[in-house]
Amino acid sequence: MVMAVLIITPLMAFMINILDGDRKEQAKATSEQEIQAALNYIARDLEQAIYIYDADGVTRNRNITTISSSGIAEEIPPAKSAPNCSPTSSSNPSVCTPILVFWKRELIADSVGISASTQTSAANTDDGFAYSLVAYYLITNPNQTNSTWSKEARIGRLQLRGPVNAAYANATGSTSNPGFNAPPLSKSGATLKDKMNQWQAGSDNYTQRVETLIDYVSTTAPSSTPCSSPNLVGISTSGFFACVDANEVLAQVYIRGNALARLQNNNLAYTANRKTYFPSSSIRVQGHGFLFTK
To answer: I need a labelling partner for 66 at 20 to 30 A (CA). Which of 13, 74, 136, 277 fits?
Structure first.
């Protein structure tokens, strides 16, 4: 019996270490795959962008006195409540931070009738274009208040789509989401940035949900300075931030996952000796959407 204990005990410890290492490697591989899938989705979204807001746009409120100091922070969640992204309070401790906010021009299939007689017909339709405001958020979950998601953070996406601007737009093309208002291209201002930073939401409340794109995003990361204000949107020591050149409609997007959060609820902070379980990746995308004023 003594010999059996001396042999079996270290074997069990060895097997436990192997199984634990295998679980961590599987969690790491899953995080890497999900990060890449999320970045591919964001890249396809950004390719349609006509304008991307830098930190000035997403952190400042509208300023009617000094136009160049305006922003849209009070016009988008969480300043304005939307499902899954409401203002932080004692009953809702989650922090919903806008990181990547942009306008895009997207194709809406079968949204326009060829003539007035085909406007309500399913046949003889054409495609039209509509503007949408898209926002990606870093949403934390302190103390795992929301049991649906991990204790770390997730990335959410909101889209407000407007109507197709065409003479014979049908029901598919003429509808728009509550709260949508067109890009303020007619506003006064020396630059396109000045105009876009004066955008105001419509009178309706937001009903569009901030849908989760990816979970298990890290809330901690090594110190870095990929860019400076106003190009840096978000905090570079978090798991989701971007470097934005609004004039060039260009964004570098960074995501860092936390594979350990898939396996445990504590001791989740990034450290150098555990960096292998915090996979990260980035993409650089330039918007190619068409803007009539350019």
So the answer is: 136
Is 87 within the bounds of a domain? yes
pLDDT digit string, tens, across residues 232-263: 999 999 999 999 999 999 999 999 999 999 99
Domain that holds residue 146: 1-286
Q: Tell me how many domains the chain contains.
A: 1
In a domain, 294, yes or no: no
Q: How far apart are CA 104 and CA 153, in angstroms?
A: 26
Closest CA to 141 of 101, 92, 99: 92
292 inside domain: no
Q: Say which residue, 106 or 90, is predicted with more confidence.
A: 106
Q: What tens digit of pLDDT does each residue of 121-155 get?
A: 666 788 899 999 999 999 998 878 888 999 999 99
